[in-house]
Amino acid sequence: MSETVEETKYRHTPDMGEISGFGGAYEQCCQDMLEAGMKWLGSHKNADLQGHSYANITGIFEADSEDAKALERAVLDAAKGEATGAMHHTVMSRLFFIAKNGWEKYCAELREQEAKESANAAE
């Protein structure tokens, strides 16, 4: 089955780098989670997203509002039981950023970061 543009709209392009940095099925799961979250956000434009994490701890993200819990369910459903705490934390944090700043700013920041990392690696 071939994917349409709509199905791949909320995927990282090569110039954005990976979500996880681990590649393979792990990264695919993160991409699936991000895309599901973006679709949820697209149909819940006025969502009340409240959540928190803990300084210096990766892998724990707490959804504090009912909308955040619904977003979390959509994200975890997309993972089909394969999400680690780190995946959940990373994707939810990114979705909260996107909800506040927009997909285009998210993409632009990742592209800028990836370009800097590539330039530093070339030095």
Summarize the structure.
This protein is mostly helical. It has helices spanning 5-8, 24-42, 66-79, 85-101, 103-122, and strands at 51-53, 61-63.
Task: Give the helices and strands, then pairings.
Blueprint: H1 5-8, H2 24-42, E1 51-53, E2 61-63, H3 66-79, H4 85-101, H5 103-122
Antiparallel strand pairs: 1-2
Helix pairs in contact: 2-3, 2-4, 4-5
Describe the structure.
- The protein has 123 residues and is mainly α.
- Helices cover 60% and strands 5% of the residues.
- It has five helices and two strands; from the N terminus they run H-H-E-E-H-H-H.
- It has helices at residues 5-8, 24-42, 66-79, 85-101, 103-122, and strands at residues 51-53, 61-63.
- It has a two-stranded antiparallel sheet with strand order 1-2.
Number-wise, the strands total 2
Overall geometry: globular
Radius of gyration: 15 Å
Helices, by number, come to 5
- Low-pLDDT runs: 1-5
Sheet bearing the most strands, described?
2 strands, antiparallel
Q: Widest sheet: strand order?
A: 1-2
- Count of the separate structural domains: 1
Strand content: under 5%
Structural class: mainly alpha
- Measured between the Cα atoms of the first and last residue, the distance is 42 Å
Keywords:
globular; disordered N terminus; 123 residues; 5 helices; single chain; two-stranded antiparallel ribbon
